[in-house]
Amino acid sequence: MKVSDFYYDLPQELIAQEPTAKRDMSRLLVLDREAGGICHKQFKDIGEYINKGDCLVLNDTRVIPARLLGEKEGTGGKIEFVLLKKINGDVWEVILKPGKKAKPGSRFVFGNGELKAEVIEIIEEGNRLVRFEYDGIFEQILDRVGIVPLPPYITKKIDDAERYQTVYSKYRGSAAAPTAGLHFTVELLEELANRGVNIAYVTLHVGLGTFRPVKVENLQEHKMHSEFYRINEEDCNKINAAKENGCKVIAVGTTSCRVLETVGDEKGRLKPQSGWTDIFIYPGYEFKVVDSLITNFHLPESTLIMLVSALAGRDRIMEAYNAAVREKYRFFSFGDAMFIK
């Protein structure tokens, strides 16, 4: 398959610039992948499609204030860092601009000198490895001097940064939110749990590679970015029990889906583990664990629209996306949701 097979025309005005007033009041497109039918709901109705014994799997990562605005030591030239992932100790991989100012040995200052960084290496795609210097606790300093990085297609500043976090976010480490989970409220999750739906968690720290365009026309030539994941024994047991009892495993978001398909063996069973995943799921992939998926609407020609096409079929996904455009759904991170049942 070619990248161009996953293109659709999206009017600019359908890209959501802010979240809905209430999380679960976003719209929900329900796609029946067996019958091919589409219906339109609100997200608060999601419980109609989740049964007692099913297992809902959420990604409990938390977005860190990974965007740093500073200046070059000595010259005062402006610089912007975005933290991608922690390598070890105080060494991080970062995207920065302007890149010409950041040769190995270059030093930068953030937050009136609270935080300093030195470039130690230029790596693939022009990213840098930098070593941070500070007095105190890095996370606390980052909270003071950093900014939560919104995706490039969101140009409007949000008033409440917590709206770019899920209500169950727990473990810090992401540069972008697992946006399918933004629709859930605490009350909705409690309602599902009270009805006998099992709720399990995975952790996958989302990198900005999630927004990276596919630059090759042949999908097999695309190199997927890697992201850190973790799943514990209790959550593995909940997911395994759902499979054994003939109930559904419902992934909330492509990030949860990628963890489950990375960890699951050929029979769909999971064991607790952690590591780095660069799994690339596109049509032709056979799912081992995930039965259904709650997801947002993704960028044209992205690895994410390829993943949902692997689950529901490319033709049905493109039909659903075109229907969403006609119905003026809101797209991308702060946009509406789709349930692939």
UniProtKB/TrEMBL annotation:
It comes from the Bacteria. It is found in: Cytoplasm. InterPro entries: QueA (IPR003699), QueA_dom1 (IPR042118), QueA_dom2 (IPR042119), QueA_sf (IPR036100). Keywords: Cytoplasm, Glycosyltransferase, Isomerase, Queuosine biosynthesis, S-adenosyl-L-methionine, Transferase. It catalyses: 7-aminomethyl-7-carbaguanosine(34) in tRNA + S-adenosyl-L-methionine = epoxyqueuosine(34) in tRNA + adenine + L-methionine + 2 H(+). One of its GO terms (molecular function) is S-adenosylmethionine:tRNA ribosyltransferase-isomerase activity. It is an enzyme of class 2 (transferase). The keyword Transferase applies. GO terms for biological process: tRNA queuosine(34) biosynthetic process. It holds the Pfam family Queuosine_synth. Belongs to the QueA family. Monomer. This is S-adenosylmethionine:tRNA ribosyltransferase-isomerase. It comes from Acetivibrio mesophilus.
